[in-house]
Amino acid sequence: MNMIVRINNVHGSQIAAKITGTFTMDEHSFRFNAIAFGRIGGHNIGAKISKTTQKMLMKLGYNVDDVINLLQQKLVRGDIILPEGITKETFADG
């Protein structure tokens, strides 16, 4: 499954941050929201997509749980495209 993740905005700190962005699959772009947690227990990210996005992904033949898992993995690993002026250190321990 090929996915490109772009971050639009990050609000918060290294302990907890709200992330908004888009991910692209099959040349279709979808919005997501996520909460990133650091520190105790390591890094963790919970991503959410809308019901409309879920329906579209299913229509395209994707398993929604697999898509969300991949999105969260990419966010945790830092396999993302950041807007100018935002660094990974803004919301992660590096």
Topology:
Blueprint: E1 4-12, E2 16-25, E3 28-37, E4 44-48, H1 51-59, H2 64-77
Antiparallel strand pairs: 1-2, 2-3, 3-4
Description:
The protein has a four-stranded antiparallel sheet, with helices on one face. It has one domain. By secondary structure, the chain is of the alpha+beta class. A hairpin with a 3-residue loop joins strand 1 and strand 2. It is built from two helices and four strands; from the N terminus they run E-E-E-E-H-H.
What is this entry, summarized?
Helices cover 24% and strands 36% of the residues.
Q: How would you describe this structure in keywords?
A:
single chain, 94 residues, alpha+beta, 4-stranded antiparallel sheet, 2 helices
N→C terminal distance: 26 Å
Strand order across the biggest sheet? 1-2-3-4
Give the tally of β-strands: 4
Q: Which class of secondary structure composition applies to the elements?
A: alpha+beta
Rg from alpha-carbon coordinates: 13 Å
Order of helices and strands: EEEEHH
Query: Helical content, roughly?
Result: 10-25%
Oligomeric organization of the protein chains: single chain
Average pLDDT level: 87
Number of domains: 1
Q: Which consecutive residue ranges, at least 5 long each, have pLDDT under 50?
A: none
Main beta sheet strand tally, sense and closure: 4 strands, antiparallel
Q: Please work out how many helical segments DSSP would assign.
A: 2
Content of β-strand? 35-45%
